[in-house]
Design brief:
15 strands, TIM Barrel, about 400 residues, six-stranded mixed beta sheet
């Protein structure tokens, strides 16, 4: 087994099975500055700070999804850390991510770390609005926890962030943290679809005035499409280099059940918006997202109806059909922090591993990712709570025949 394959297996296992903390494990006090970006990754609370992410080797980062019953244990080992699988005592050395250089900085008397999130080891994330107007009409996506998680865990005092707050926080973060290479701006719907896009346009326009903004190698906008597709090119003009219009669910009838608000906008309209975005941003820069784990649920969204074989069949069909449109079909893993209407769902470890390996092969073979990119999105050290970059890396390494 190659080292990269072994590390991939560890990451899958940690995301699916979670991780608990050894009884006597000690962490640096700096991790008390941990902040939640869009949502929590566990429905359990722990009474002391724990790290967000773990580095494994030189090219892998994994999110800690805390579970008190997990067979994987993060513990001190020598002067560092390891994760141990208690059933076999297999271990792998891990490292903590150093806290960002902007940790002590403030904007409008608020810590930047409560406004922006240092994601992975090189990505700055910011959420203009933790509110989505779907919640007002109870049409929110049934897996979504963006608003209740904010109410429970996020320290910024309002669901909405002003343009001044966003601009000053991003620029100050970039000035104070040399590892930052990428920016991801993700939001709930603000007032209307067009107004949400207009807000992103204003953000980009403000950021473009700052020379340091050119340091960002990729700038991602994740939002619903506008009603007026003529606004899509303006996003590109204002500095966004990547765009996500998330579908979340592939089957149109299931889409209506899981995403009633999005369904009112229109499944086909989202697809058309994605195709429009490809014309503007170029092949390899346009993404949609699906939630892995909920595609096979029945119409009642009962977690017990999850079928790992059917899940992979449906998801692979989605991958092939979306790739045919020259759009990248990204997948996040279903998470539950205790607030959505689906509930706790146990993913199948082997099926999850197999799907993301096949995902990587399909996307690599599609030759849709620009050759100069080191990952599907951002870098291998950016996204700790997904597996698509990792599956793609496996496919690339296999193609280069460096298996050991």
């Amino acid at each position: 087994m190659s080292n990269i394959k072994s590390i991939f297996d560890w990451k899958v296992a940690l995301l699916v099975s979670g991780c608990r903390i050894g009884i006597h494990t000690e962490f640096p006090s700096a991790i008390s500055l941990k902040k939640i970006h869009l949502y929590a990754h566990s429905n359990e609370k722990i009474d002391h700070p724990i790290p967000d992410d773990l580095l494994i080797g030189d090219h892998t980062i994994v999110r800690i999804r805390y579970r008190s019953d997990s067979p994987f244990i993060l513990e001190n080992f020598g002067e560092g850390y390891q994760v141990r699988y208690e059933k076999t005592d297999q271990c792998i050395p891990v490292r903590l991510v150093n806290r960002p250089g902007f940790s002590g900085c403030t904007v409008a008397k608020l810590p930047i770390s409560s406004i922006c999130s240092f994601l992975g080891n090189d990505l700055l994330g910011i959420t203009p609005s933790n509110y989505c107007f779907y919640f007002q009409t109870k049409q929110q996506c049934r897996f979504c926890e963006i608003l209740p998680t904010f109410k429970s865990d996020v320290e910024f005092p309002k669901t909405f962030k002003s343009l001044d707050i966003i601009e000053n926080s991003i620029i100050q973060a970039m000035e104070n943290e040399e590892r930052l290479r990428f920016i991801a701006i993700t939001t709930g719907n603000i007032h209307s679809y067009d107004e949400t896009v207009d807000y992103f346009i204003e953000i980009g326009q403000r950021l473009q005035k700052h020379p340091i903004f050119t340091k960002a190698e990729q700038v991602l906008a994740t939002l619903m499409p506008p009603e007026d597709f003529s606004k899509i090119p303006i996003l590109r003009e204002k500095g966004f280099t990547k765009i996500y219009f998330p579908l979340e669910v592939f089957n149109p009838s299931h889409f209506s059940v899981v995403c009633p608000g999005k369904a009112d906008f229109g499944y086909d309209r989202i697809l058309k918006a994605l195709e429009c975005a490809v014309e503007v941003f170029g092949v390899g820069n346009v993404y949609t997202n699906f939630v892995y784990g909920i595609q096979s649920l029945d119409s009642s969204l009962n977690p017990a109806s999850y079928d790992p074989v059917a899940e992979n069949t449906l998801c692979l069909k989605a991958v092939k059909e979306i790739l045919a449109r020259k759009v990248i079909p990204a997948f996040t893993l279903y998470h539950y922090a205790g607030y959505n209407s689906i509930g706790k769902l146990e993913l199948n470890l082997d099926a999850t591993n197999a799907f993301f390996r096949e995902w990587g092969s399909l996307v690599f073979d599609a030759e849709i990712i620009p050759a100069e990119q080191e990952a599907v999105l951002f870098s291998p050290l950016s996204l700790s709570n997904t597996l698509f970059n990792d599956g793609f890396q496996l496919a690339k390494k296999k193609e280069k025949t460096i298996w050991i």
